[in-house]
Amino acid sequence: MRTFSFIIISLLFFACGRNENTAPYKNPDLAIEKRVDDLLSRMTPEEKFWQMFMIPGNLEPDMSKYKNGIFGLQVSAKGRSGNAAGQMLEYGAEGTPGEVADRINNIQRYFIEETRLGIPLIPFDEALHGLVREGATAFPQSIALAATWNTELMGEVAASIADETKSRGIRQILSPVVNIARDVRWGRTEETYGEDPFLSARMGVAFVSEFEKRGIISTPKHFVANVGDGGRDSYPIHYNERLMEEIYFPAFRACFKEGGSRSVMTSYNSYDGSPCTASSWLLRDKLKGEWGFDGFVISDAGATGGANVLHFTAKDYPGSTANSINAGLDVLFQTSFDHYPLFWPAFRDGLITSENIDKAVKRILKAKFELGLFEDPYVNPEDAVSLNGSAGNRETALRAARESIVLLKNNGILPLSEKVKKVALIGVDAKEARLGGYSGPGNRKLSVYKALKEQNSDCELTYAEGPGRNDLRYIAVPQDVLKMPDSDESGLKGEYYNNNSLAGDPVLTRKDSQIHFGWTLFSPDTLLAYDWYSVRWTGSLRSPLSGMYEIGLEGNDGYRMYIEDELIIDNWQKKSYSRLTEDYYFESGKEYKIRIEFFESTGNARIKLIWNQGLERRTEYRINEAVKLAREAEVAVLVLGIEEGEFRDRASLALPGAQEELILKIAETGTPMVVLIVGGSAVTMQSWYSKADAILDIWYPGDMGGQAVAEILKGDYSPAGRLPITFPMDEAQLPLYYNHKPTGRGDDYLNLTGHPLFPFGFGLSYTSFEYSDLELSDSNINAGETVKITCRVKNTGAYDGDEVVQLYIRDEIASVARPVMELKGFQRVHIKKGESEKLIFELGKEELEMLDINMKRVIEPGAFRIMIGASSRDIRLRTHLYVN
Predict the structure, then answer these.
(1) DSSP code of residue 189
(2) Which residue from 767, 89, 733, 660 is spatially nearest to 415, judged by alpha carbons?
(3) What pLDDT shows up at residue 78?
(4) Which of 41, 288, 489, 761 could be cross-linked to 871 through a Cys-Cys bond (beta carbons 3.0 to 4.6 Å apart)?
């Protein structure tokens, strides 16, 4: 008996040992599908759940909490993660490249060596136009890269970013943004490749393919349209399928089918009544079904719970989780490990079918096997040190900055004459060297000021900040002048009521350091409904200065303010958003009793206590200082910028603050004026366009942007960037884009033209080009055949330079309305002065097909207008192609 028992124990031991060391999923010689199936069969429900959960941050001291594995982490070297104002995640200096690589190696080692099944994670990060980490090269913002109209250069930029990314051990990027920006009020226009599906698709494919070739998963986002009515971020959309197929799907589809993207991120908003994160039509029918996408779908950060806290299509987190996974979502992206209890019950309690769970986990495991993470999970930190911010990558960043800059106006002042010896440089953006949204800290950023200083040693450069980008008429009353009741502690006492009439006892009492709140998505506290509460703040205010100052409140109305028990501001009604102030005389050092009351009855609340102390003449002083320098200079260069970003949409496209006033004041001096625009979207210029001698859009030009600007101002490089978006004359024209369908009548207004200020594809140069010799290889082709189109472009100016030659088509007669014109080809070509180049374009099935009345892709017989030009409104050559 003992012998039999020993044999059984020995066999069990052998089996266990074999299971651990020689399990099929660990055999790299087996087909990935078989490895996936074997590993999946060994996983517990908890282990499957954690493969579908991704978070930012590092491992915590209690390692046992990760025993079931995890999909992936957004890793830093210093353990910092969390929420930042205006962003879902916090980016910036979080460790050197080598430190991050070493940290990721250690984390991978834990999951491979210390968890039961040894499943590696996928370290992920943002890399929109450069990795968002310390030491990484910052390239021009996405919209600027699109403005190069150069897919080859885009590929080189992407390759550089990919090399820096992979050297740290990061194997997935949450980029690029291939949403279509048809309304430039949208704050995230800067992250996109512009308004056109063809240009966005070409740029998107050039970007993602370089990452995928290097074993880094790219994640086009946000599926499917992230901007709705009014140009507002994540607003609900209700576009029909034709519009989706013609405009909003093509860039995504191209990234998957041509670029090989293995992941996609859903958007926060709803489509046709369903949150995009839980839309079966989008995720199962269209993406995975019709398109055959075999990668994995991740939510935007926190979007899975959005079904119940934002869209109200699920009563709780388990319900929203089940809706999403059952609809085709594969990965839950959350902002904290500690959020998992919100989602686990949906798995535990059977709200999600086991079939759908297994389908999702299979897609995730397949990607991990494809990346080779089971066999080769570690990186050499020394590679991260040498690659990040390398000389070669900085040179690529410089080339991209040069090619992205768009010359919008030039009366001959540019390039600046060598005779100019005194330049006034004005504007905070001249020194700030802003990089745009989803950027790291930059790597040895070269500002416009620094570059001009270094490259123009024989020119006197003076500098003034100017008024800046912000409206400085009022600021939030600071904490240090506020005082709690019966205490020396700074701030105000806040009493919060679970009704909108300050009735009864408060359910929450706390100290608020100042009144500057935006309860737009949630209530002030979980004890309160997000749309039914009131607040009373009490304490005192001690002014540091004596004088008459404006003081008041700004926000959703339903507020009032008392000073010394006297009603100063009375707006106790719900109607709109407003700012109300009153003059009040304060004595320095004297304490004034203050009481502020506020109520909310519909949600989306904002309230701010404001005054103008210290600001009375600040803007005027800064403008006068700048005007003085401009008057004394031979040329004034103004570097002015806009404010935008995620959840920062713009109702006005004018330059913010007092920057337009600055332009007009400097124009009065008579000094020639060059305006450089820093930003990622359109700017209106009606009040000052005629006053500027030259205008350059430099976007957010990256680490080397200052040098590129300096070279263009001096004439060492001829600008040739082209607009990937339409610039309107006025916000009243929006949305405004070039490829609209024919109108029923005209497109003008009674008191405003329907034409843009600058059209899609527009951009000037220091030289000039002549177009000629348009020829078709065959003017009659059969459906499905390809035609070659050739033309000649000659540089007839005085400078060597680039020209961006654009090919547009128009289907002259079709069974359904077609766009007035569509971009179907472009080439950026360098031509020396006096020389010419022959260009060849091809049009085939993809470019000529359309959706018929039954939503079938067809090429209808008939005439197609072929147009070649320098912009969508500057057509130089045209002919017709006939399809049989």
Answers:
(1) G
(2) 767
(3) 54
(4) 761
Q: What is the CA radius of gyration of the chain?
A: 30
* Pairwise CA distance, residues 206 & 251, whole Å: 11
E strand segments, 30-161 = 53-56, 72-74, 124-125
**In the structure encoding, which two tokens stand for residue 549, read together?**
């100052």
CA distance 180 to 242: 15
Question: Could you tell me if 301 and 89 are in contact, meaning their C-beta atoms sit under 8 angstroms apart?
Answer: yes
What are the pLDDT digits (tens) for 430-485?
Answer: 999 999 999 999 999 999 999 999 987 789 999 999 999 987 789 999 999 999 99
Strand partners, 561: 569, 596
d(CA 675, CA 638) in angstroms, rounded, equals 5
Angle CA 492–497–498, to nearest 5 = 150
- Position 230: which residue type? G
Yes or no: say if 724 and 193 are a contact pair by the CB < 8 Å rule.
yes
Rounded to whole angstroms, the Cα distance separating 541 from 561 reads: 13
pLDDT tops 50 at residue 274:
yes
The secondary structure of residue 530, as a DSSP letter, is T
Q: Are 108 and 360 in contact (CB under 8 A)?
A: no
Strand order in the sheet with 406-410: 406-410, 694-697, 673-678, 635-641, 422-426, 460-464
Residue 176 phi, psi dihedral angles, 5° rounding: -95, 175
Whole-number pLDDT of residue 17 = 38
Output the six-digit token pair for 120: 């590696």
Q: Which of 295, 427, 422, 267 is nearest to 367 (CA)?
A: 295
Q: At what angle do helices 250-257 and 197-213 cross, to 10 degrees?
A: 30
Alpha helices in 388-518 (DSSP H): 391-404, 429-432, 448-455
State the sign of the Cα–Cα–Cα–Cα dihedral 362, 364, 370, 373: negative
- Among 20-24, 52-56, 207-211, 589-593, the range scoring the smallest mean pLDDT is 20-24
Tokens 């069990």, residue? 12
| pLDDT value at residue 560 | 98
Confidence band for 7, pLDDT divided at 50, 70 and 90: very low
Find all residues with CB under 8 Å of 200, minimum gap 6, and list them: 146, 178, 180, 192, 193, 194, 250, 251
pLDDT (0 to 100) of residue 618: 83
The CA distance from 424 to 817, in Å, is 52
| Distance between first and last Cα of the chain | 88
SS3 for 227?
Answer: strand
Place of tokens 């600046």: 416
**What's the CA gap between 878 and 191, in Å, rounded?**
34
Identify the band that residue 18 occupies on the pLDDT scale cut at 50, 70 and 90.
very low
Answer whether residue 760 shows pLDDT above 90.
yes
pLDDT in tens, 578-606: 999 999 999 999 999 999 999 999 999 99
Predicted local distance difference test score (pLDDT) of residue 64: 81
d(CA 407, CA 641): 16
What is the token pair recorded at 608? 């701010």
Residue 19 has a pLDDT of 53
CA pseudo-torsion sign 140, 144, 148, 151: positive
Beta carbons of 853 and 816 less than 8 angstroms apart: yes
Count of all residues that appear for the chain in the document:
884
Evaluate if residue 671 carries a pLDDT over 50. yes
Show the tokens assigned to 538.
């009490």
158-161-167 Cα angle (round to 5): 135
Backbone φ and ψ for 711, nearest 5 degrees, come out as -65, -40
pLDDT tens across 324-347, in order?
999 999 999 998 888 999 999 999
